[in-house]
Structure formats: structure tokens, C-alpha cells
Amino acid sequence: MKVALITGAARGIGAATAAEFAQAGYALALLDLDGDEVRRTGKKLEEIGADVLTLEADLSSLEQIEDAVAQTAERWGRIDALINNAATRELETIREITPVNWQRAVDVNLTAPAFLSKWSAPYMKIHGGVIINITSVEAHIPKGVCAVYAATKAGLLGLTWEMANALAGDNIRVIALSPGAIATDFGADYSGGKDDQPADPTLSQDMRDYSETVIPMQRWGTVDEVARTARWLASDEASYITATEITVDGGLRHTWMTREIKNRIRPGEFE
Ligand code: NAD
Hints:
Layout: E1 3-7, H1 12-23, E2 27-32, H2 35-47, E3 52-56, H3 62-76, E4 81-84, H4 99-124, E5 129-134, H5 147-167, E6 172-179, H6 185-188, H7 203-214, H8 223-234, E7 244-248, H9 259-265
Parallel strand pairs: 1-2, 1-4, 2-3, 4-5, 5-6, 6-7
Helix pairs in contact: 1-8, 3-4, 4-5
Nicotinamide-adenine-dinucleotide is lined by residues 7-8, 10-14, 32-34, 58-60, 85-88, 108, 134, 136, 179, 181-182, 184-187.
């Protein structure tokens, strides 16, 4: 039986990925900061026959990360897929960054994937394995309002290339999977006011409406569309894929113009 260790597995893309890997027959180590929710997610997957270990852990703690890998290895003796999915996103510009928020994001988004990979790799060495780092198109097309998020996602791409080179000899593939705009709480929530600034109740919807005029496929993606890609990348069908980035973004990475403007340039073509 193959074993997948998935971070941020309580909800969103992580929970959908857990369900996909369960269907593919993997045993699952599901890690999340939100213990109650990850246990609920784990229970649902057990009900459909999955072998599940839930790990309540904070990725900003190296001790907790090391312990999570140890518990996974103790239970099954192997790790075949590591999905570095969890992340934190601060809506802070470069003018607003604070040392505490910056450090926490670096710890969770970049340091945790590095050490999870370091400690998981020995358990992949015998049969080979795959590490999938969930990055973001924001590594390439930042909005200017999430400084540390964009920086850590770009850093995670660099770490992907580095690890892919270092671990290929052990038959461990390392791939960056970059979602575009995906309908989750994380992806859709721009409503919160900051400090003394009042919350803007229509901002999240306006943001969604606007982005749908830019995304060539004209819609947000679903968690299942990302999860299915992760499952395929981990499978033998993707056996020669490593050291690369796969985007699941409806074309967002390579565009920037709204449909309205395109339509003014070529009337009738983009209605
Ligand atoms: P989500 O908020 O729905 O889920 C993230 C999970 O990670 C949560 O369950 C949360 O509890 C957990 N988590 C957060 N900090 C943690 C920590 N310190 N320790 C352990 N667990 C922690 O988010 P999502 O939209 O499913 O995003 C998953 C990944 O996809 C992230 O890496 C995100 O950057 C990336 N991504 C998402 C989008 C999008 O539009 N949703 C776009 C690009 C990239």
C-alpha cells in the first residue's frame, strides 16, 4: 500500500487531494493545524475505506513537523507521496509587512516544505516517491498586496528545482503544482478589514467577478481540478516528470487583459 502525507488536509485543496489519493488506494497521513476539522475529514475518508492517520500540528514548529513524519513512518514504514499544500496568506503590502507575520509565513510556506521533504525522503528512497509542492501563479503574477505570500511561493519554486536535482538519484520526483484562482475560503476571501480599516463586504465578490473577466477560461477552478492533477502527477503515468511547474489556472498565468478590452480590440471575438 502506498502512503501519502498531505499538509493542510482539513479543507480546501488539501482535503480534495486526500479524497483523490484515497480513491487511488493510498493510506493517508493528514496534517493540519485545525485538529477538529482534519479529524472530521479523516473520518469521512475512513468511512469510504481509507486507512487514515490524522496529525494535528503547526507547520511553523520544526519539532511538530519532525514528529509528524516520525508518526507516519512508524505507522506504515514508508512514504510514497508528500504533498506540501498548507500555506498562510497575509494581505500585506511591502509597506505593511511586520517581522512576526513575515517570519511565520516563511516558516509555514517555505521552511516547513523543506524540512518535511528532508525528513520524508529517506522513507521514499527504497521504492521511489514524489514530492508535490503547491505553489501559486502569484509567484509569477503578484497582485502587489501579498508580499510575503508571493515571495514564499517564488521561493518554493526555487526549492522545487533544487530538490528535484538532489533527489532524482533516489527516484524521487519533485514537482511544483501552481493553482490559479480556486474556489476555497482561502482563495475567495478578501473581505477582512485590516487594523482600523473597515471590512469591505462586497470586495470578495467584486474580486471574483473581475478575475473572471481576465481568466481566459472565464471561471474559477475547483479544488477537484487541482486534486486530480496532483493524483496524476503522483502516478506512474507521470513517471518522467520532475523539476517542473504545472499550472492549473484556466490560462491565468499567461494573460493579463480583460475580455472587455480584448473585445474592443477585436469586436465580437470575446463576448
Ligand atoms: P485553505 O485555507 O482552504 O486550506 C489550507 C489549510 O492549511 C487549512 O486547513 C489550514 O488550517 C491549514 N494550515 C494553515 N496554516 C497551517 C499551519 N501553520 N500548520 C498546519 N496547517 C496549516 O486553502 P486552499 O485554498 O486549499 O490552499 C491550499 C494551497 O493552495 C495553499 O498552499 C495555497 O497557497 C495554494 N493556492 C490556493 C489558491 C486558491 O485560489 N485557493 C491559489 C493558488 C495557490
